[in-house]
Fold these 2 entries.
Entry 1:
Amino acid sequence: MDKNKSIGFGVRGWLLIIVMFLGFFTFQTFTNYPLNILADFYGGSQRVALLLTAGTLIGTVIQIILSRFIGRIHSVKKVAAVFGILAIIFAWLVAALPLNMLSLWYVAYFGVNLTVTIYALFFLSIIAGQWFPRRKGTVMGVTTIAYPVCNGVIGFFATAVYAPLNNGGTAPAIFTSFLPFLIVGSIGYIMFLVFITDYPEQCGAYRDNDKSFTPEIAKQMMEEEIENKRTTVWTTGHIFANRDFWCIAVVCGLILMAAIGAMTQSSTIIASFPNLNYTIIMMVIALFGAIGSWLLGVLDTAFGTKKSMLICTVLMVISGILGVVACNTGTAALVVVSLVLLAMFMGASSNYTVSAAVQYWRREDFASVFACVNPIANIFNAFAPTVTAMLLASVLGVTSVFIFITLSGVIGLVLMFIFSAEHVKNVDDKYRTAAGKPLDDALIGRK
């Protein structure tokens, strides 16, 4: 087999990247924006945050249940399509329901949190790992640019919502402001239905866009992988009993919690520094967030997921310390730098659940491991808005948010130093021996 591999992701690969980008964009819009911008219209940030937490938690429970037989699901795409259409329906309801139908709005907001988490963060990420096992870091680095980009337009979203009120009107323009996001999310879902398959070989493409494989060999590898997934030695029980799994899953969760928690309350944090312009700051965050998401993804692919995650946790610590100093000195420039650093790993917070599962376990084990890593990380994500709202309401206020980010970064650093790819390999050998499967060097040298 020659090494003449295609450059880029291929047409089909780019379509998957676009679908994932739009899926993450939809997730960010319809889970975070109602909390960050519209909470006062729907009973306050603590009530809306609890709905977000409840929806995400139940979605997480569903993911854990699915993890027990994910390798036996004949078509991930078909199951994803069900959750995807429900997410789009709930998103339209969140935007369209009037303020006097508060109970129904609560149901819709709870529903969109549950379904879009499973559709975008769970199933689309599984498909990405099946399409790009070696280049997953770069791919996720590109797709998760959706998070900072989405946050970058939040200022304009807020302006549009309040425009009627500022001009003497009696009701905010919620649906009008949401409409572009609804259209984008709906287009992304239609593209998913039309262009995306479970495996690249099913539509004439190649894993990692590697055209050094012949179509026959590629198809044979796909069929072998499907069978091996069904008999994976990494069952849910084995995964949850593994030390290294917990190191990775908890750090992924802490990164998510720090980034998403702060960004859901970015308007409150920035408002504590009167000289800062919210719209401009969010555009700066979008720019650096996009760069950071791409850069950490490239570092993930080039130097390994562990090293990339270590860099990410260092950024967390620095961001938290600068935020604490800013709050205690009133230095607006420092809080801007702190939020910029936070934004740089905001997209990466969803990179690593895919990257780690692909990087340190076999491709045949990826779906099972990811199906456990992702929901554990999402538990932290689910509590992020509620915890942040509680911290903001505490005596220390905004300062406590940055203290929490600092501590999360320190814990993350310790856990990443504990994590060992060699230990994963040793445990894999033990399980394969017990199952009567042959041992090999597939996991040797994973960086």
Note: The mean pLDDT is 86.
Entry 2:
Amino acid sequence: MTIHEMRTLLGDTQSEFAARYHIPSRTIQNWEAGVRTPPGYMCELLERRVQSDLANRKTASLPEYDPNKRDLPSRSDYVGALSWLNAVRECIGEPFVFALDEALMCQGNFGGRSDEFIVWGYGRDNASRFNGVVLLGDHVSPYNVVERNGLQYTDFNRTIADALANESILDMQGITEALSRYYYKNDDSFDGLFVVPEYQDRFARLVDEALDYYAD
């Protein structure tokens, strides 16, 4: 796969592709123009990263209710978030890793909403037969998955990365509240959190919002 083909699959401009993988824009331009040829190992590394990013960015918009799909258990029918999530997992009936707001609920960092409709996660395409399921990808590294109370969910660092990657379609209230709680529980510090360079600027804005939330 050529650099141009990789970039086109992601839908990135040359500058966006360069920023995503921390490569100078001029280098990308030269590679695509044939002025220079990227090393073979670089192409292999980039292709693996691109394939992973493609697998984990399936959704560009939130789903609307589809009467032809099955409904998941209603959040309002359950007192606690964990009891609802266990019912959702049993309904889906196959391996499913909760992500974003649902991961935050599993972590105890966010209470959720009584009218919750969207369920974020990683799983097989078959999970999309239910209304409200938003798949971020087919798989996620087991190193980023926690299993507790019969549920599988992304750890906090991966949850933050997913939030920043999907900020354009995600209500950021949950992640902002969770960051605020993290700050409070860790002696007024964000130590222990890791954010990849491509999201550092956006994370800095999010931290400011979390501190404002904490101050309130």
Note: The chain has a mean pLDDT of 88.
